[in-house]
Amino acid sequence: MSAAYATFGLVPAIRAGGVLSDGGYRIHRDFVDFLVDGHPLLHRLSDLDAVSPLASDVPPAIFTEQVRGLLLEADAPLPGDRHVIYGCPECEDLACGAVTAVIRRDGDDVVWRDFAWQTTPEADLERNGYHGIGPFRFRGAEYRAALHALLATAESGAPRRRVLLIGARVAVLARLAAALRTIGVGADITRDAQDVSPDELRGYGAVAFGRAVGERERAAVREAFTRAGAEVAYVDGLAPIIPLLVAQIEHALDPGPAERRRLTRLTAAHGEAGIEVTSSCRVQVTAYRLDRLYRTHTHQVFDGVLEPGLHRIPLDARAVKGEAFVVARTTGSVLVEPMAR
């Protein structure tokens, strides 16, 4: 077997969690995706809700074992030198389905081939093979350097990031914190950050402000984080709608470079949503609005696979009447936009 060389790299990614319109939840997962020729490998799988085995919330020993497996320093977990490339984001059960591939050395090179969808220990390439993906031949030095660097970062014990919620409406913040914790995102509530220690501030990845927080208070919070040397994303809460606020925070927590995200643009105006995607993927569009009594109304606008490019999704006038917002979501990213009046 021969294959042209492909470049290998790693990039931080998320499986965006969220509060669904039916009241259910999607768990937030931070993981590392594989870059093949500069593009996330997961993007080649248009409608797959999955994460790589290199997730930040697995115990350090298991994370190290997964990396050493990819380095071929440990036995493959499945027969025939098969390794799990992407698995279920909710559990580790193979029965839920996983993308697997044969990983072997070829001289100093490392080759990934025979990609397949697998629900049992044995893969059926004829029925469930991904015939349009691979084989990929990686230069051994580049491949090992990327994984060893990841291993060194993991062993440094970097803390997981949390969200600091600041606002006047304690009841809304408490519900938001509960929703974030349910999907696996840590959240704390405070009125200001003046008395929070620098070490603790550096543990946050985002700060979310309620609409009632004034500019002077916001500036004081930013100053406290600056003094602590903490780089965080700041979120201005659009409305007291929990699923909407969760989506805003998920977007802020996305560590991946913008140019490597599937969902790159969202507009909401003139009765339609404009959505741009970089690869074929399933997109869900939800509209939220507040009526005159500040009750929340939710409308599922679109749920389907979009091809790369810019798309226009019509919005029902009743779904975006008054103060309204649109959320577009793919497996790995989410965007929020207020409806232009």
Structure description:
The chain has 341 residues and is an alpha+beta fold. The chain has 3 domains: 8-155, no CATH class; 160-229, 3-Layer(aba) Sandwich (Cobalt-precorrin-4 Transmethylase, domain 1); 254-341, Immunoglobulin-like. The chain has 7 helices and 20 strands. The strands form 6 sheets. A 4-stranded antiparallel sheet has the order 6-7-8-9. It has a 4-stranded parallel sheet with strand order 11-10-12-13, with helices on one face. A 4-stranded antiparallel sheet has the order 17-16-19-20, covered by helices on one side. A hairpin with a 2-residue loop joins strand 4 (29-36) and strand 5.
The string of secondary-structure elements, in order, is EEEEEHEEEHEHEHEHEHEHEEEEEEE
Stretches with pLDDT under 50, minimum 5 residues = none
Q: Using only CA atoms, what is the Rg?
A: 22 Å
The strand count comes to 20
Give the CA-CA distance, first to last residue.
Answer: 59 Å
The gross shape turns out to be globular
Major sheet summary line: 4 strands, antiparallel
- Arithmetic mean of pLDDT: 90
Helix content class: 10-25%
Please report which band the strand proportion falls in: under 5%, 5-15%, 15-25%, 25-35%, 35-45% or over 45%.
Answer: 35-45%
Overall structural class, as computed from helix and strand content, comes to alpha+beta
Strand arrangement in the largest pleated sheet:
6-7-8-9
Brief sketch in words of this structure:
Helix 1 (60-70) runs antiparallel to helix 3 and helix 4 packs across helix 7 (242-253). The protein is globular. Helix content is 21%, strand content 35%.
